[in-house]
Structure formats: structure tokens, C-alpha cells
Amino acid sequence: MNIDHLKWGLELEFARPAHATAGGTINLEYSGINVAAKHDSSPRLATGFERYSGVEFITTKLWSTFPEKDVRAILEFANRHGYRVTPTCGMHFHFSGITLRRSQFDRLGEILSATNFWKSRAGWCALEEIGKKYSALKFVAPGHYEARVFNGTNNYQGVIRPWLFLVESIKKVTE
Question: Which of 3, 85, 147, 170 has minimal Cβ neighbours within 10 Å of its Cβ?
Fold first, then answer.
């Protein structure tokens, strides 16, 4: 099945230094997707960094072409401001525009569950409960899904490789 019509979203979690700005929006001039920096006071993202709290960068508009310049800008911003990736930080991709049959959903969940995610994130991307709130693959709304198993990263290859893997996996289960 051709999936070129799908729309995508990205969430990147970081441990944020206590002195850094908690929220706001980074306006990206390249694709106009915009990214909201959502403060997360949960200590789970900050594990191992006593002076850190969590922050999640979330694309506020879905995109159809991978926004390379925007992703690089987000990562550069995070690195410049001292944001760190801890063993509990994750990366989630949303995708919309396709309705997966139950068998396709289950198969994609199995593929994603077999990825090499950090075991410290197991509580947020459960293997045995596909479709639940904190599972490898989550049903969000009709035609909209969230893949939650990917490890956090502060480098571009750490974002693009999992996205390409997800694209290929969706193609595989929809053939």
C-alpha cells in the first residue's frame, strides 16, 4: 500500500536544566510545523539528573514530508540549552490517514515491540498491552496512531532512522 499520503507528528522528550525556560513555542521558518515545548514536572524524564526536570517538544501541526531542517533546529536548540537525554526519555511518532485492520495493528505492534528500546522505558511502551495508553503502538483516534517505543535522542540520525523504520514497517503490514 502506498502511504505517501500519511501525515506525521513527533514528540521528543528531554531532561531540562532547572534554569532553562519551561515552555513556549519555537517557530521554525522551514516548514511552519511549530513545536510546543511542554513542561513535564514528572521526575521520570529527569532520572539521574538531580537538577533537571522534563520537557517534551511536540510538533503542533502534522507534516507529510519529513521536516529535516526543523528537526535539526529542535535538536540544536535542545543541545545549545543543555537539554539531556536520560534512559527514560522517549521519542514518539504519530501518524494519521490510514485505518489499520486489527491484524495489521497487532502485527505493527509486534514489530515495534521487538525494537531495542531502553528497558528503563518499559513502563511507557508495554510489550504485552498493544493499544493501551502506554503501549508500543497506541490507537489515538480513528485513522490516527502513536508509536511510542523509540528511545530519546539528541542527534538527527537518532530521529530519522526510527522514522524510516516505522515507515517501512507500516508498508510491510499494509501490503
Answer: 3
Q: How many CA atoms lie within 13 A of 109 on its CB side?
A: 22
- How many Cα atoms occupy the beta-carbon half-sphere of 72 within 13 Å? 7
In the predicted model, is pLDDT for residue 94 greater than 80? yes
DSSP 174: T
* H-type alpha helices, the chain: 68-80, 102-113, 157-173
Residue 97 predicted with pLDDT over 60: yes
Number of neighbouring beta carbons within 10 Å of residue 121: 21
The SS3 assignment for 119 reads helix
Three-state SS string over 42-70 comes to CHHHHCCCCCEEEEEEEECCCECCCCHHH
Average pLDDT over residues 49-71: 75
pLDDT at 157: 95
CB 161 within 8 A of CB 66: no
Whole-model pTM: value is: 0.83
For 114, residues 6+ apart whose C-beta sits below 8 A from its C-beta are none
CA distances from 86 to 63, 99, 128 (A): 27, 34, 24
Q: How far apart are CA 92 and CA 86, in angstroms?
A: 15
CA separation for the pair 55, 85 (Å, rounded): 10
